[in-house]
Specification:
mainly alpha
């Protein structure tokens, strides 16, 4: 029969998996928004200047490096946020009722 308390390793793995899933979702949504903006702006410019596919193709191709740079920025920001959070340490001898003891 399996115990009901998860071990710390499985909890850490679950947190890592959720973090990666959130990161993938953010990058996917950002890429989609950047591509949609490039297509909409390209179609508008093509209609305005009567140059059917030129602006749309240029902006869609330009959105690729913008998406990559944005992905790297989001990845670095997520890594910095993960590194800046100190690990939780509980020491029952120094905690009493949620407050540190004064010496």
């Amino acid at each position: 029969m399996a115990s009901s308390t998860p071990n710390p390793e499985s909890k850490n793995q679950r947190v890592k998996n959720l973090t990666l899933a959130v990161f993938a979702g953010q990058v996917g949504c950002l890429t989609l928004v950047i591509l949609a903006l490039a297509v909409l702006a390209g179609v508008w410019l093509d209609n305005h200047f009567q140059t059917k596919p030129v602006f749309t193709l240029v902006l869609v191709l330009a959105s690729v490096p913008v998406s990559v740079i944005t992905m790297l920025f989001v990845a670095r920001k997520a890594i910095d946020k993960i590194k800046s959070q100190p690990p939780e340490q509980t020491n029952p001898q120094t905690k009493e009722g949620g407050f540190d003891k004064e010496t």
